[in-house]
Design a protein that fits this description.
261 residues; single chain
Length: 261
């Protein structure tokens, strides 16, 4: 096993159990990605990843958001009815979706679906020595494999979050009209009167950080995969767990940051 002080290269092995080595590897991978901005962008690869990451994730994002909005409306409607504030369920639901539920749930779904897929793809190439073959032919695997996926994530996750926010609020509208006897017109008007641009900005601002974390973790674990198919499976599991924890922990600090802005 190589020493952590040795110069890093894509595919080098760090002891995953050592937090410093893992974080150091992520930092060095980020440095290599930043250097790719000055090189020629793989436009076709980025578009292909946007289709894979964004378009193919619409169904799971919509399904998650609509039922989350319905559950929120049902729970809050029952609670607010005790104080005679049931008609204002739309305001609380909209703020909850825009600031927290929409960004976090979307990031968790994308981290599980897309993050695992990225790790499996790159990890399979790593254990079958395809990445070593690319390097021997003078191709930078970071520029070819990692950079397009990260850019696609940064572009598509905010768009998916906007879709999740809209669908979640529509789910709440359905419950408000069907179960809580709140008119659709009052529901919509109360939301537009109450929410501010800062509510939307706070939620969308988080998604860029979430996309960066998901992309870095997924690609790094793929580049570090060893031990054949079993190693790829372990790397994929590690990506889902690490990305989910990182999203939830960073959400707290990002929330504090955006509240101060």
């Amino acid at each position: 096993m190589r020493e952590t002080a040795e110069k890093w290269s894509p595919g080098s092995i760090y002891p995953i159990g050592v937090a410093g080595g893992y974080l150091g590897g992520l930092g060095l991978l980020l440095y290599e990605i930043v250097r790719c901005f000055r090189k020629r962008w793989e436009g076709a690869a980025i578009l292909a990843q946007m289709e894979h990451i964004g378009v193919r994730s619409i169904s799971i994002v919509v399904l998650t958001a609509v039922f989350s909005g319905m559950v929120l409306a049902l729970q809050m409607g029952d609670y607010l009815a005790r104080f005679g504030a049931k008609p204002y369920v739309g305001r609380i639901l909209a703020v909850s979706m825009l600031r927290e539920m929409g960004p976090v749930l979307t990031a968790l779904m994308i981290g599980a679906r897309v993050g695992a897929g990225i790790t499996a793809e790159i990890g399979s190439m790593k254990v079958t020595e395809q990445i070593d073959a690319m390097r021997s032919l003078g191709t930078n695997p970071i520029q070819k494999l990692v950079f397009p996926r990260l850019i696609a994530l940064v572009i598509m996750l905010p768009l998916l979050t906007i879709l999740a926010d809209f669908v979640g609020i529509l789910g709440g509208l359905f419950i408000a009209t069907m179960e809580l006897d709140v008119s659709a017109e009052f529901y919509v008007n109360s939301i537009f009167q109450f929410i501010k641009f800062g509510d939307l900005f706070s939620g969308l601002g988080k998604t860029f950080f979430f996309a960066l974390f998901i992309g870095l973790i997924a690609c790094y674990n793929g580049l570090e995969a060893t031990g054949g198919a079993d190693g790829v499976g372990r790397a994929t599991t590690r990506t889902v767990v690490t990305a989910s924890i990182t999203i939830l922990v960073s959400d707290f600090f990002l929330t504090k940051l955006f509240l101060q802005l």
